[in-house]
Specification:
Blueprint lengths: L20 E2 L1 H18 L5 E5 L5 E5 L1 E5 L5 E6 L13 E9 L4 E5 L2 E2 L1 E2 L15 H17 L5 E7 L3 H5 L4 H4 L1 E2 L1 E2 L7 E2 L4 H17 L4 E5 L2 H10 L8 E3 L4 H10 L4 E6 L1 H9 L13 H10 L4 H8 L4 H11 L3 H18 L4 E7 L5 E7 L1 H10 L1
Parallel strand pairs: 7-10, 8-12, 14-15, 14-16, 16-17
Antiparallel strand pairs: 1-13, 2-3, 4-5, 5-6, 6-10, 9-11, 17-18
Helix pairs in contact: 1-2, 5-7, 7-12, 8-12, 9-10
Family: Belongs to the CbiD family.
InterPro entries: CbiD, CbiD_sf
Keywords: Cobalamin biosynthesis, Methyltransferase, S-adenosyl-L-methionine, Transferase
Length: about 375
């Protein structure tokens, strides 16, 4: 019986175990190894066993094995991402392996594998977007096969993904300067569903590209909608400056500061930013509850009476509170909330950067904004 797979945007069921999958890098290693074996022996391999950095071996099923008229060996496999909502799930990964006169392994990307056009990535400009760990995995696996059969010559390995250019449209590759297809990725060979480490790695990469592009001001958003609104608010900034941090507010701010950003703007909605105003730097729905008592105290600070404050304490969501304050006309509430968020963000970063927070509705209407610099942070710390 086929297991139901998670869809993009769908929350996992906490009562059901999640199925892991395999990275594009692991799949590329498998097909490169299989095609090399075919080139050397003439025998068609049904599987290729790959030693994964995660610490175990996995046998990948190979398809479409064969020899082309020019003497190139080819193998393919279908990527299985498990229950992770990965854009590359079920993508066909192909390797073409041919002889070369020089010893060793020459690796390149073919159709559907992106080409790096901007600095700041772990792969130099001009090369195929095959990240360092997959490069090493592919090279080592192919080298082992060459040594096993005593090959006197080296080989050229080309990794292709037929639908890669179309798949890449669902990713941030174009913004990162990776054009023409997907990236061949993976540090462990395994895709862990809803992996926080994978998302953090994407944030690090995006900030690195922003830095390499000369950005000193980045804009962090919690998702696609808030990013779209942020881009309309700040059209003067290049696309590279806008980074989807997800729930990892504190992590993104610290990394931005570490890479020398002078100004960090955060644009988001009341549900998550109410938590930031409380001092919560990881705003996943399960990380910490919204403190409605805190929101009520902020409302009182900005002129709300006891009846409204009591209603806030009994509210169900921060968005509901935002609606209540908007209807009551207490707009300074949102500026105060943004100020608290700024203060906690700057404190988390350890100072040394200007932080701006902009609060928007789900439809993109600005509710309030505030910013704070090092000097203001020091004054606030003394008063706290």
């Amino acid at each position: 019986m086929e297991k139901k797979r998670m869809k993009s945007g769908e929350a996992p069921d906490p009562d059901k175990p999640m199925r892991s999958g395999f990275t594009t890098g692991a799949c590329a290693t498998a097909v490169a190894k299989g095609a090399t074996q075919l080139l050397l022996t003439g025998h068609i391999p049904a599987q290729a066993v790959v030693s994964l950095p995660a610490g175990f071996d996995h046998s990948f099923e190979l398809i479409e094995q064969g020899m082309m008229t020019d003497g190139t060996a080819t193998c393919a496999t279908i990527k299985d991402a498990g229950d992770d909502p990965d854009a590359t799930h079920l993508a066909k990964i192909i390797a073409h392996v041919s002889w070369r006169d020089e010893p060793g392994v020459e690796l390149d990307g073919g159709i559907g594998v992106g080409r790096v056009t901007k600095p700041g990535l772990p792969v130099p400009v001009g090369e195929a977007a095959i990240n360092p760990v997959p490069r090493r995995m592919i090279t080592e696996a192919v080298t082992q096969v060459l040594a096993e059969y005593g090959a006197a010559r080296g080989v050229r390995v080309v990794i292709s993904v037929p639908d890669g250019e179309e798949i890449a449209k669902k990713t941030l590759n174009a913004r990162l300067g990776i054009l023409g297809g997907i990236s061949i990725l993976g540090t462990r060979g395994v895709v862990v569903p809803f992996s926080t480490s994978a998302y953090k790695a994407s944030v690090v990469q995006a900030i690195s590209v922003a830095q390499a592009s000369g950005c000193e001001h980045i804009v962090l958003t919690t998702g696609g909608s808030s990013e779209k609104y942020a881009m309309k608010m700040m059209p003067e900034l290049p696309e590279e400056a806008f980074i989807q941090m997800g729930d990892f507010v504190g992590f993104a701010i610290k990394h931005g500061k570490r890479l020398g950003m002078k100004r960090i703007s955060l644009v988001g909605m009341p549900g998550k930013f109410a938590k930031v105003a409380q001092g919560v730097m990881m705003v996943h729905s399960k990380s910490a509850p919204v403190d409605f008592g805190f929101l009520a105290s902020v409302a009182r600070e900005t002129g709300a009476g006891d009846e409204l404050a009591q209603a806030i304490e009994e509210a169900n969501t921060a968005t509901q509170v935002a609606d209540m304050m908007t209807e009551a006309g207490y707009l300074p509430y949102f500026e105060k909330l943004c100020l608290y968020a700024c203060q906690h963000c700057l404190e988390h970063a350890g100072g040394g950067v200007t932080v701006e927070v902009v609060l928007v509705t789900m439809k993109g209407m600005e509710l309030g904004r505030a910013e704070i610099s090092e000097l203001e942070h020091n004054n606030w710390s003394k008063e706290s």
